[in-house]
Amino acid sequence: MPEPEQIRAAVHRYLDAVATGTAADIAALYDENATLEDPVGSPSHTGRAAIEKFYGSLESARRSTELLSLRVSGDSAAFGFRVVTETGDQTITVEPIDVMTFDENARITSMRAFWSAQDISFG
Amino acid sequence: MPEPEQIRAAVHRYLDAVATGTAADIAALYDENATLEDPVGSPSHTGRAAIEKFYGSLESARRSTELLSLRVSGDSAAFGFRVVTETGDQTITVEPIDVMTFDENARITSMRAFWSAQDISFG
């Protein structure tokens, strides 16, 4: 099981990659066979290729992320964060709570994002 | 699947019960066969009797709770909150992030609490 500090570092790496990385950079933080459910209740994406595709829509937008809260428990983390996406003249702000599990190398083995339309604001 | 508003109300009912209810009051918000994992990574408690026992230790303490953030997604909620427990001359503050699933009547079918020793403060 990864140490809590490894998990904390992995969450920060993830938010940095979501802000400044390519879809491939983000997907590289996931295990080859990881699953992604975003938002929770929607169909899962399985495997790094599908996960890279999921993040592809981010690449054309300017993005920033901010960690709001982080709890580490066992091999898992739950964290609230803000992601601001600028596409053309629209700014979209979402504040999900994500739950991730990690393998012994602190690679993401699953991600589930809790949010709904109510948690999005447009500016 | 319960409506988002039913899930929001259920989370508020839960935090009210943790603050002012008996262990039986809290357990009554759970499905008969619900599971509880608190903290995540520790053995699960299954069934309402085991869940009532889990909350029994709270009964002798003065408690207060405050919801800090809440995200509803599908049949699930993730929420950060503060629970302050006063036992004799010690005040213990914990700020977990909990994830719950709900049945069609917004009864809790599972609860997982993300927190570690780092998230506890003593006053």
UniProtKB/TrEMBL annotation, chains A, B:
Domain SnoaL-like: 11-110
Pfam families documented for this protein: SnoaL_2
SUPFAM superfamilies hit by this protein: NTF2-like
InterPro entries named among the record's database cross-references: NTF2-like_dom_sf, SnoaL-like
Protein name per its UniProtKB record: Nuclear transport factor 2 family protein
